Amino acid sequence: MKRIGMGLVGAGFVGPHHIDAVRRLGYVDVVAIAGSSERSAQQKADALGVRKAYGSYQALLDDPDIQVVHNATPNYLHHTVNAAAIAKKKQEVSDKPLAMTAAEAKNLLEQARSAGIVHAVTFNYRGNPLVQQARQAIARGDIGAPRFLIGQYLQDWLIKDTDYSWRLEPDKGGASSALGDIGSHWCDLAQHVSGLRITHVLGDITTTIPKRKKPVGSREAFQAASGSEQFEEVDVKVEDLASVLLRFDNGAKGSFSVGQVCAGHKNDLILEVCGSTASLRWRQEFQNELWIGHRDEANQVLAKDPSLLDAAVRPYAHLPGGHQEGWADAFANLMRDIYGFIGEGKRPDAPHPPSFATFEDGYRANAIVEAILQSAAKGSVWTEVKY
User: Fold this and answer.
1) Rounded to 5°, angle at Cα 331 from 330 and 336
2) How far apart are CA 69 and CA 45, in angstroms?
3) Does domain 4-125+335-359 have CATH number 3.50.50.60?
4) pTM score, two decimals?
5) Where in the chain is the domain with CATH 3.40.50.720?
6) pLDDT digits (tens, 9 = 90+) for 1-46
7) CATH number listed for the domain at residues 128-319+365-384
């Protein structure tokens, strides 16, 4: 595989994981980091062993050694940075959400298609081996026709009124918090695993803590408040809890809940697909197991073991049975699919590897979240998702 130069814009919480994942591939050179200032960029570059640092994303985009740009900035910069990278004909890997609105996301998709670049969104849970095993099993008909898709994505990092993040500010995070941040992951996973599309939603959303204490100084993402911090009280306009009913394009129904105020749930993503003959359930906090439910025989738990997985799924598992693989391994699988596609020089419209989510998938996620918000604003009524 030829060497590929990568540049990272935004080195906050998830940025270093982008670097770790691409370095594991062996043929990607991490060329530069761009930050909000030259000083901050240089500090991150020194800490991560990256040779170049830029004080603006524009300077990074001008670097001829960079072929692929990773956008790990806060949400409000996603459209701006993605559009600028597309204009420079750089291949693009964007964190989700693709943009702040569905209209912006659709605009980016159209720009990327017109420019003829490879475009990807980091819906990283697709990279888990047993997620791909569930997808293969459903496509093969192992559970019959999917009839009911249920699940949750619960966290507790916003349970205190002193917990705070830019994700709670609509001008930085968007019109949604919990749904946009984690609900989008659940919706993408449900559609990816089942092969179905969400067509209608009915949403009920809540802001359980309407006033929060915002730290006067800076604080790292997901970091708890310290005793020495000073605060200002602010009104919160976005949801931290939501429940949604779903309709799918094959007639299947579904429901899921998201919450960032649920004690004891750290990153508790669960997806279950109930079919006409069997069921499958995957839980992120126990991601090396896939539950298989039956009526007329004993239920099963398939442990992650390359020798027990379908041949097409085995490349996503890198350790023998009994050796646990986790979040970072799934993220690296995602990058392996993306960079393998780029390295082989494939056309952007060629068939993509399974874990590879495109700007089209990112646009769909934006559209679903907007439809849920519209449903809730109308008094929780069924609302069509407009793709």
Assistant:
1) 95
2) 16
3) no
4) 0.96
5) 4-125+335-359
6) 799 999 999 988 899 999 999 999 999 999 999 998 999 999 999 9
7) 3.30.360.10
